[in-house]
Specification:
Strand content: under 5%
GO molecular function: phosphopantetheine binding
Distance between the termini: 20 Å
Structural class: mainly alpha
Organism: Micromonospora sonchi
Shape: globular
CATH class: Mainly Alpha
Radius of gyration: 13 Å
Number of strands: 0
Number of domains: 1
Helix content: 40-55%
Keywords: Phosphopantetheine, Phosphoprotein
CATH superfamily: ACP-like
Protein name: Carrier domain-containing protein
Number of helices: 3
Pfam families: PP-binding (PF00550)
Amino acid sequence: MSDGQATATAIHGRLRAVVVNHLRKVPDDVDWTTVPLPDLGLDSLSAIDLVIDIEETFGAQFPADLLVRETFATFASLEAVVTTMVQPA
C-alpha cells in the first residue's frame, strides 16, 4: 500500500468515526458509498457540530466556500472535501 493509499484509508476511518457521532440512526448494514447523510439523521445543526469536530480531528480549516448542502449530501462527498483539506496538493 502506498503512502497515499494509507493516508486515504486513515482519513476514511477517522472521518467515519467522527461522522457517526453526529448521526441519529445508522443501520449496521449502511452502504457508506450511497446513503444520503440526511437520511441517517444529519441536519443543519448537527452539520455545524460535525464541521467543528472535523476541524479539531484533522487540524485543518474547513473551506467556507464548501460549507454547502452538496458537501454534506453523502459520506463520499464529505470525504472528498476533507481529503483535500488534509492532503497536500
